[in-house]
Amino acid sequence: MKTYQSKYLAKEIKEHALKMVHESGSSHIGSCLSITDILAVLYNDILNIKSDNPNMPERDRFILSKGHACAALYATLALKKFFNVNKLSTFASFNSTLMSHASHKVPGVEFSTGSLGHGLPFGVGKALFAKMNNKKWNVFVLLSDGELNEGSNWESFMFASHHKLDNLNVIIDYNKLQSLTTTKKTLNLEPLKDKFESFGFFVTETDGHCHLSLKNCLAKKVKKNNQPRIIIAHTTKGKGIDFMENKVEWHYKSPNQNQLTEALNQVGNEL
Questions:
Q1: 169, 232 in Cβ contact below 8 A?
Q2: Is the pTM of this model over 0.85?
Q3: Which sequence spans correspond to the domains of the chain?
Q4: Class in CATH terms, 2-268
Q5: Element holding 133 (H helix, E strand)
C-alpha cells in the first residue's frame, strides 16, 4: 500500500509541475521529472516531518540543492499540505513566494537554493550541529550530477567524512545530462562511486525511479565506521514523457499547450 501511495504522489507531483512550468513559461521541467520519484518516496515514507508544524525542532532536514527543480518540490509540499495547492498557480509570478528557484519563504523549504554547490555545505553544517548537540534528526540533501562540477561539494564531502557525519544522507540525481550537453562531455564524473568511496562515504547505487528500491536504500542505516552516506540514483531527465526523456533541450524549454496536453495524458496512464 505504501509503495502505491508514493507512486500516486509522484504522479500528482508530475501533473502539477507540468502545469506550473507551462503556465509560468518557465524552465527546468526535465530536471523536475527526474526527481519526482525520489521526492515522493522521501515525503511519503522516509522524512520525519509535520506539515502542521514545519519548524518542529526534531524534524528531519531536507535540502534540494538543485534549486532550479523547485517546481517539483513546491508541488510535493502542497500535496503534503504544507500550504494550499491552489497557491501553485502563482509559481514564478510577480510577488509570489513560489520563486523559480527554491525559496526558504515557502513553508517546508529549509534553505534557498539555485546557485549550485550551496545546498550540501549548508546540509553538512546542519548535520554537524545535530551531532554536536546529540540531536536524533537526519539531514537529506538532493544534488544534481552537473552540480558536482562545483568544488564546494567536494570540500563538503571531505568535511563530512572527517567529522563522521553518519546522520548525513546525500542523494545524487544522476540523469547524466546538464545544462547544454551530457555530464560526460562537460566534466566526466566516472568512476563516481569510487570517487565517493575514496572520500570515506558509504555508497549505494539504485534505480532512481523504482520506489521500492529507493525506499530500501533510504531507510537502511549505515552500521559501520560512522560514515556519511551517498545514494547514487540513476535517473532519466524528463522521465515519463516520451518526447522529453533524455532530451537536453528540456532543461530550458517550457511545454506549449499541445505538449502539455500530451504530457498530462502520458502521466495519467502511469498507474
A1: no
A2: yes
A3: 2-268
A4: alpha beta
A5: none
